[in-house]
């Protein structure tokens, strides 16, 4: 989809002048310009939520364009299904005469008549596909005063699974095609059509490669015996918070405390929250949160003594009172540091930036921060440290390498292929690191709840009786469980087993004797059985370390296998049935994509849709009844009390959700 709109701050024919200094700090209403396909069976398009979360905090105008930036969001529907959105926001030069005149009126005050104001109103309510940057329009208005005007526009991919890396790469390649002096090999419609209709979701345990505008894109999905898909980089969260702070916030999440995440960057908010959710295995929790505006002083913080405040931008965490530490926290931090260091990633125990609640081993001086920033920039630019630079200079003087390079030039081998391979290699290393870091957390829960089944109380012989009497019965022998735990674990465990996420986990365990096991529970029980088998064979301390190393190795091998042996390659983008002249790209301006071409699915999809439309009433009724039964079962397992996790952006409008089903992210 493409999101943009025309600003209308207030109403009436007379508007007060907007100071030029405030132009870049003023946001306006936005709307969805186009979406493809317009309708998807069984997946209604929530236009209000997508519009609000794509253009955050709203449409903006600039006299100088900001660099494009990427962010993602999540919408949780009433049936607990999730929809992920991935957004690339960039700035285009305004070339609409009406918009330029309207903005000049806002900046300089109403000059003559109400015609300008009415033109703004008509643009706001607008037609079906109003574009602020039509190529045929002349540039006047604000530009005549001596400067160009730029407006924000957003490209969004909506997906049922969080393939963040693949969607981000596709959006960046689309943007690159628009900004490049050389037009792309095919019209943009060909690449969008290919993604919509010809690129399938990879099956569990499989990998998929499809073609972007310039480079191939690979996405992979964990198998049934692995931890569930989580494509948000945990290493970035560690860099934002530090290991110590991450464990503290993770503990607050497990105990279902009130958590307030605060950042100016919406992608940092999404990354931190999704990574925290991915670490909860085998437990699940539908986080409920809203967006708030202003700084911390402007926020009405509920029960601040009970609140965990996480300032992501300043790398600091304020913990609530009477906070129990996670069992063996120092050992957990050491394991995480070992994994990071083995992957060549710096592993700060705590943040080395101002605002961190704990001191860091590295100095936090301006020169150190500046040096780290310059080194990071050098790495991004391809520069090497002094010792590596000397090695590179030695290799460049090697005659054999020079002959090989000349041979590759004669045979037509491009260096671009090397950059593509290095990018895919970097993606593979990041995916392996993510999987191994999550395995460290999963191993903690496997060790902590290895014997939990012995304390589950099975008091009913059938599901209906259990569902009816569940509210008045005990499903877990908490006293006996705590009596067998080490004393240092008790402050945390005594509170954790009282949480809703632990109660839901036990409920799923009891229901598994009558129904199919829930996916996370099945993986967790398999891991426990494997651990017990290892303990029988080698009941000593060394086997514990070997078992953990084996789990990390298996996780890395599974990811590497999927990257090295791609299971499925999607159909390549191709020309569509479009008229000559359609699909041309005007450099710097994202074009109006052809609706007819992008709203027409392939014949195979059309056949499936026609077949679904002719289902018998009995089949439809049976399907609907199963859906209603599932909802009733979920409602019975939910408890009204639910903690609140707020994600805040200082420039976002205030919006609070009081029910887990109505909380777009």
TrEMBL record:
Keywords attached to this entry: Guanine-nucleotide releasing factor
Single annotated GO MF: guanyl-nucleotide exchange factor activity
Annotated InterPro entries: cDENN_dom, dDENN_dom, DEN5A/B, DENN_C, Run_dom_sf, Tripartite_DENN, uDENN_dom
SMART domains found in the cross-reference section: dDENN, DENN, uDENN
Segments forming domain UDENN: 11-516
Location of region: Disordered: 108-127, 344-368
Biased composition (Low complexity): 348-367
PANTHER family for the chain: DENN DOMAIN-CONTAINING PROTEIN 5B (PTHR46070:SF3), PINSTRIPE, ISOFORM A (PTHR46070)
Listed name of the protein: UDENN domain-containing protein
Organism: Periophthalmus magnuspinnatus
């Amino acid at each position: 989809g493409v999101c943009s709109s025309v600003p209308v701050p207030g109403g009436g024919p007379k508007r007060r002048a907007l100071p030029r200094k405030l132009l870049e700090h003023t946001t306006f209403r936005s709307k969805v310009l186009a979406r493809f396909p317009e309708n998807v069976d069984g997946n209604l398009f929530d236009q209000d939520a997508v519009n609000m979360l794509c253009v955050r905090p709203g449409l903006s105008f600039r006299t100088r364009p900001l660099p494009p930036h990427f962010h993602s969001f999540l919408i949780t529907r009433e049936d607990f299904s999730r929809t992920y959105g991935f957004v690339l926001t960039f700035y285009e030069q305004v070339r609409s005469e009406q918009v330029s005149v309207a903005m000049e009126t806002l900046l300089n005050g109403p000059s003559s008549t109400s015609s300008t104001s009415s033109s703004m109103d008509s643009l706001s309510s607008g037609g079906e596909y109003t574009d602020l940057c039509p190529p045929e329009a002349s540039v006047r208005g604000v530009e005549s005063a001596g400067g160009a005007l730029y407006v924000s526009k957003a490209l969004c991919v909506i997906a049922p699974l969080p393939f963040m890396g693949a969607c981000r790469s596709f959006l960046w390649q689309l943007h690159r095609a628009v900004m490049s002096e050389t037009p792309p090999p095919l019209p943009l419609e060909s690449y969008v059509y290919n993604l919509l209709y010809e690129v399938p979701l990879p099956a569990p345990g499989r990998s998929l490669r499809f073609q972007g505008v310039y480079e191939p894109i690979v996405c992979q999905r964990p198998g049934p015996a692995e931890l569930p898909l989580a494509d948000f980089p945990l290493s970035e969260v560690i860099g934002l918070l530090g290991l110590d702070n991450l464990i503290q916030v993770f503990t607050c999440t497990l105990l279902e405390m009130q958590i307030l995440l605060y950042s100016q960057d919406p992608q940092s908010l999404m990354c931190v929250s999704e990574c925290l959710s991915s670490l909860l295995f085998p437990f699940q929790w539908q986080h409920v949160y809203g967006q708030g505006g202003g700084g911390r002083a402007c926020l009405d913080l509920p029960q601040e003594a009970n609140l965990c405040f996480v300032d992501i931008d300043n790398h600091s965490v304020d913990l609530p009172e009477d906070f129990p530490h996670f069992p063996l926290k120092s050992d957990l931090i050491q394991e995480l540091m070992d994994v990071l260091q083995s992957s060549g990633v710096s592993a700060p125990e705590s943040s080395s930036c101002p605002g961190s609640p704990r001191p860091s081993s590295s100095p936090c001086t301006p020169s150190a921060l500046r040096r780290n920033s310059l080194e990071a920039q050098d790495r991004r630019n391809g520069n090497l440290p002094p010792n590596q630079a000397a090695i590179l200079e030695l290799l460049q003087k090697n005659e054999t390498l020079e002959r090989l390079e000349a041979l590759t030039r004669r045979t037509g081998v491009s260096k671009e292929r090397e950059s593509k391979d290095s990018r895919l290699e970097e993606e593979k290393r990041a995916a392996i690191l993510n999987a191994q870091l999550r395995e460290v957390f999963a191993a903690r829960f496997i060790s902590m709840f290895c014997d939990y089944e012995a304390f589950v109380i099975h008091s009913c012989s059938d599901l209906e009786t259990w569902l009816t009497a569940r509210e008045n019965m005990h499903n877990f022998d908490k006293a006996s469980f705590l009596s067998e735990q080490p004393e240092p674990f008790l402050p945390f465990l005594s509170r954790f087993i009282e949480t809703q996420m632990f109660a839901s986990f036990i409920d799923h365990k009891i229901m598994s004797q009558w129904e199919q096991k829930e996916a996370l529970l099945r993986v967790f029980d398999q891991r426990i059985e494997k651990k017990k088998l290892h303990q029988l064979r080698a009941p000593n301390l060394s086997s514990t370390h070997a078992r953990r190393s084996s789990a990390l190795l298996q996780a890395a091998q599974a990811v590497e296998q999927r990257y090295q042996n791609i299971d499925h390659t999607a159909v390549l983008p191709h020309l569509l049935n479009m008229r000559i002249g359609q699909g041309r790209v005007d450099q710097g301006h994202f074009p109006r994509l052809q609706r007819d071409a992008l709203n027409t699915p392939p014949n195979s999809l059309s056949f499936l849709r026609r077949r679904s439309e002719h289902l018998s009433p009995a089949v439809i009724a049976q399907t609907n009844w199963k859906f209603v039964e599932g909802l009733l079962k979920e409602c019975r397992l939910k408890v009204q009390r639910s903690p609140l996790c707020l994600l805040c952006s200082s420039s976002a409008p205030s919006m609070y959700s009081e029910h887990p089903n109505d909380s777009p992210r």
